[in-house]
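Structure tokens please, single chain.
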Amino acid sequence: MKLNLKLNKFKSFHTFNFKIIIRGISIFLILLVILLALFGCVGGYKNNFVVNNYKISDSKVNNSKVDNTTVNGFKVNDSKVDDSTRDSSKANDSKVDDSTLNDSRIYINVTNNDTNNNVNNNIIFTFTVCGDNRPADDYLPQPEVFKKIIGLIKEQNPAFHLSVGDIINGQTTDENVIKRQFQDYLDVVEQLSIINFVSPGNHDLSNDTTRKYFSERINKKTFIEAKLNGIQIYTFSDSNANQDYKLNKSGNQDYAGNSFSFYYYFEYKGVYFIILNAFEKGYWGAIKGGQLKWLEKVLKNLSNQKVFIFIHTPVYSVLNPETITDGSKHVAFSSKKNLDYIRELFKNYNVDGVFSGHEHLYNRQFHEGTTYIITALSGEYPFVSEEEGGIYHFIKVEVKENSWIFYVIDKNNKIYYQEEVVFN
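Here you go.
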């Protein structure tokens, strides 16, 4: 009897201890899973510039669905980019893999100089960008595909729109023809009912007549609308350009006209937008003279700010990466020395993004902390195949507190590419 009692006590004791151990292990595993989830370890992180690459199967602009399939590298021009060439100076550091040539797939990449930054915050505002919509000659109206793209941009409800130039053909000095060309453009973008900023292209400033009517029809309208919407524009004198506009007693706008510029900057909700003119008189395809001195001063003052730059000529050309100017290749910058200096300037002052046109295609590159985007196909003929970026498109940018997301959206309202980039 005593022996049985001792055995029963022994069994109860060990059964009790076993239950405690099992419960302890369960609690430990639960806590471990929670900690892993909190620190983002469940999905896995990549160091350097790419964090959590995802493949998306649904290409609707505002209805993307994410699965957990990891994709190595970027989809740029329907191509995979070799990470080892990401920071090189090659114009199109991409290797084509036929497995990625599928327009129904979109790849999200988080470009990040600091993987500890929090990029999961709310969208503050949205803006859109496109370029090179001009007709093929001086007597054609704006292309139908451009009208369609502007309609798609309107659906995105941006705070404002920016063009990287070549909005007209501009190959005549006939004032009536040039006035009609600019009016055709304005008639199309008018449906946006928002401010339209333009970095002029070579076709927009091809002669004195186009310069005259670009300032009167485009800049004047932009500056007035900026003032009416409370946006401060600063020009080469670093004074408030909006002070050159006034409302007369009848409520109409008068233009003082003595301090407008084809290059200027403005601030919107803590982000700075610099509009450059690569075709100042005497400096074709370059940023030189007074504009360069102004730019140096502005970038120095904004070195700790969030900065986007808009310039018609690509700072990293796809079609002419060697900057050959003898006429054998399509010329972007006319001076390799000036181009190298501009690149160094953007690097030294931590410019976040540069948007360009001129080369009729889409392309994205990342160099020394700055994202460079060519968005130059919203109406003109493409220079390359669709596989190489020859798609009609526009860019939508969503600005968040610590990062920005850009979407390349084609003429069928499908996302061709998107990426989230952390501000410098």
